Amino acid sequence: MGNIQVIENLKNLLVEYTSNTETQIANSLTMIFQSFESKSLKEDIDNYAEFILLGASLFELKAKRLLPQDEGVDWLDEVELIKDKDLAFARLLQFKAFTEVGLAMAIKVKDTEKEIPAFKYYQTSSLSIKPEIQYKLDINKFNETAGEVFSRYKSIQGFTHIDKDIPDLQEAIEDLLKIVDKRLNTTFEELVSSVNSPQEAIAFFLALLEAVRWGFIKAEQTNFNKEINIEKNYE
Amino acid sequence: MNNKKIISAVLLVSDGPVDHIYFENLLQVNNEELLKIIAEINQDFTHAEIGFYIKHDNLKCDIVTKSEISDFLTEVKPPPILRGLSTPALETLAIIAYEQPVTKMKISEIRGVESESSIKTLESRGLIDKAGELDVPGNPILYTTTELFLQKIDLSSINNLPTIGEYFDSSEEE
Predict the structure, then answer these.
(1) B84 vs chain A: nearest CA distance in angstroms?
(2) Which residue of chain A is at minimal alpha-carbon distance from B15?
(3) Cβ-defined contact of B15 to A120 (cutoff 8 Å)
(4) CB pairs under 8 A between A and B
(5) Domain for residue A158, yes or no?
(6) Helix axes of A75-112 and B104-111: crossing angle, nearest 10 degrees
(7) Whether this model's pTM surpasses 0.80
(8) Handedness of CA B30, B32, B35, B41 (dihedral sign)
(9) B60 and B20 Cβ atoms separated by less than 8 Å
(10) ipTM strictly over 0.85?
(11) Fewest C-beta atoms under 10 Å: which of A63, A192, B28, B166?
(12) Is A151 part of any domain?
């Protein structure tokens, strides 16, 4: 049984599909896969791909028949679904294609590099093997290096806070609970209105998360641009 | 002065391939005559059993070693430009080659993963370069392949890349 037989079986399956007999469909599918397994289709990539596509389409048809048929499906929803599938499939193919092209390019470059241009400066500047750096480190040297690194970072924008004390999270949690106890309900924005630095505001936010996790308070934000409402948890 | 001497010497010391137009102006010859001289030099090299020749395309030429002796040059030649490059980096290179000029976001969108480190690696090898910014909010950087990439892939222009993408053109999504 050759490729023609496989195609014949697929045709039969389509005919039987319309005959509405599930047993016939199952039998035909079995026959198709048996014929595929036993024959040389595997060695023929074009036929293999075609076979997989046809098989997948038939499975989709069959799967659709197994779904409830009574509910009417909006055809616009169907079209949207097809568009999404099409896009996803196209992206997958595109990604696969670029993977293959990347590997093919690597082979081409390797081949081209069999012919080496005469010594040129630009090659040495970007391609020379960097010398291996060996650096022995003891605790004193480490301290020294760390000190140097920190002193350099101080001069870089964004690291100016490096010497500042880190706010105590436990303290922030206690402060938060005191305020909530006093006011019963408040907002996060009110809580941070009196803090002196962004670090303290962050500590308050972390404290809020911890207090919620432990169940001391409840916090709710209905929308990302709305206030975070905080209240004592009485449960 | 013998034109063959000048061409071979210029190619020996030049920092990269030399455009035909340079020799045409320097030696007052037309393109046809220049290609004839190059062919003669190559014949001389072959007769003398020299291990290199002048490689040329329609635009430029350079002295390169002959491929049949590449195995004997392993210890002295520069390291391969793709040495240690991962498959993701090669994917990124292929995407930039075919989609250029392209933003980092578009590359990541096609690959489905962040491509920052691959881009940095390719940039450090001189295979890609920044080529301006896209005129949209945020002004993302555009990347293109370099002249070195063309040399390494043995093409005279990026337009000569074999077509793979006529169905993949998604420039409207940018």
Answers:
(1) 11
(2) A120
(3) yes
(4) 110
(5) no
(6) 110
(7) no
(8) negative
(9) yes
(10) no
(11) B166
(12) no
**Interchain pair B16, A112: CB under 8 A:** no
Please tell me the distance from the alpha carbon of residue A179 to that of residue A199, in angstroms, as a whole number. Answer: 19
> What is the per-residue pLDDT across A157-175, written as a single tens digit (0 to 9) for each?
666 666 667 777 778 788 8
Cis? peptide before B101, omega within 30° of 0: yes
Closest-CA distance of chain A to residue B101, Å: 16
* Mutation for B interface: A83, A92, A96, A98, most B CBs within 10 A: A98
Domain boundaries, chain B: 3-73, 87-173
Predicted local distance difference test score (pLDDT) of residue B172: 45
According to the model, what pLDDT value does residue B174 have?
A: 40
Point out the residue among A98, A115, A118 whose CB comes nearest to the CB of B11: A118
Cβ-contact B164, B172 below 8 angstroms: no
Tell me what the pLDDT averaged over chain A comes to: 73
B81 contacts in chain A (CB < 8 Å)? 109, 113, 127
Give CATH for domain B3-73: 1.10.10.10
**In contact, B101 and B70? CB cutoff 8 Å:** no
| CATH code, domain carrying A175 | 1.10.10.580
